[in-house]
Design goal:
Blueprint (H helix, E strand, L loop, with lengths): L10 H14 L8 E3 L3 E3 L2 E3 L5 E3 L4 H7 L8 H11 L3 H19 L4 E6 L6 H9 L12 E3 L4 H11 L4 E4 L6 H13 L21 E6 L10 H6 E5 L10 H10 L4 H9 L2 H18 L7
Helix pairs in contact: 4-5, 6-7
């Protein structure tokens, strides 16, 4: 029940004591590999490996790291996913979730998928549908971020997601220039180079993922640069995205049952025959796409 008072006089002895304890017990101490981001590592895909733990210093990222997990009933989640696939937009948004796990493997640049349309069409619910592939798909309290963020605020979030799809709900509150800058930031795959007070270069944030967002308007405009158009797949919703399905039922189902898809997908990607098939699919579709657009 007593602490140890440390000052300039005894700090050296205390450090030596801890070093001696560690040295004497190094054969008994099991090393624990740690990471401050999700995604691929030499120890496996975080968080779907037991060989590595999350140890980032950001408390918000720490909270969110615990939301990337399986929860609820797999069959209920799967059945609702299949029901939503009757409609084109949910199918595309869910495909984007899995595509994010392929980018690193296939050496493809980051890109974005954006859904826009009037309020009440189900834009936020389709984000939940896609995000449920990874974890708890709630907005604010789950793995979906609100769109009101600066570049400085986005960089650590993107680096935390690293290879997992990045979800942004409601970009309408940002200006056209802010949105344009955000697109370029996300699609570059790395943050700005910065210096600390001593003039040393700080660690640069890196990521390689698919961003999935929504708003009441297109993400590009008359002021957007050409590169913005090349990096975003935009979908305009002219009617109800889920047609006759109940939006509250879809949202509630995925908030109570989630996190199964990404883990299963990562397990499949470890199989050589699946890797070979994906490589062939990439070649097949790449040759079709490249004839209509730029390499990006």
């Amino acid at each position: 029940n007593y602490g140890i008072l440390v000052n300039d006089a005894n700090a050296g002895y205390l450090v030596k004591y801890f070093c001696d304890i560690e040295k004497l017990n190094e054969n008994n101490i099991n090393p624990i590999h740690a990471s401050s981001s999700l995604g691929y590592s030499k120890y496996g895909f975080i968080p779907y490996t037991t060989d590595i733990i999350y140890n980032g210093s950001n408390p918000e990222n720490k909270r969110r790291s615990n939301l990337y997990k399986e929860h609820g009933d797999f069959n209920i989640w799967k059945d609702m996913q299949i029901k939503t696939f009757k409609y084109t937009i949910p199918k595309i948004m869910v495909a984007g979730a899995y595509a994010s796990l392929l980018i690193e493997k296939l050496g493809i640049n980051p890109f974005g998928i954006h859904i826009w349309g009037e309020t009440g069409l189900g834009k936020s619910v389709v984000l939940l549908t896609s995000a449920s592939v990874y974890g708890y798909p709630d907005i604010k309290n789950g793995i979906v971020y609100t769109g009101n963020a600066t570049s400085n605020g986005l960089e650590p979030r993107l680096a935390f997601n690293k290879n997992c799809a990045f979800y942004l709900d409601e970009l309408s509150m940002l200006s056209a220039k802010q949105i344009d800058d955000m697109i370029y930031l996300i699609m570059q795959g790395q943050g700005k180079a910065r210096m600390d007070k001593q003039g040393n270069t700080k660690n640069t944030y890196y990521w390689n993922l698919v961003s999935i967002s929504n708003a009441e308007m297109p993400i590009t405009n008359d002021l957007s640069k050409g590169g913005t158009y090349n990096r975003i797949i935009q979908i305009g919703a002219k009617g109800k995205i889920f047609e006759d399905m109940s939006l509250p039922e879809v949202a509630t189902t995925f908030k109570e049952n989630y996190g199964f898809g990404a883990k299963l997908f990562i397990e499949l990607l470890e199989k050589q025959e699946i890797q070979d098939e994906i490589a062939q699919l990439k070649k097949h579709y790449y040759n079709q796409v490249i004839s209509k657009t730029e390499d990006k």
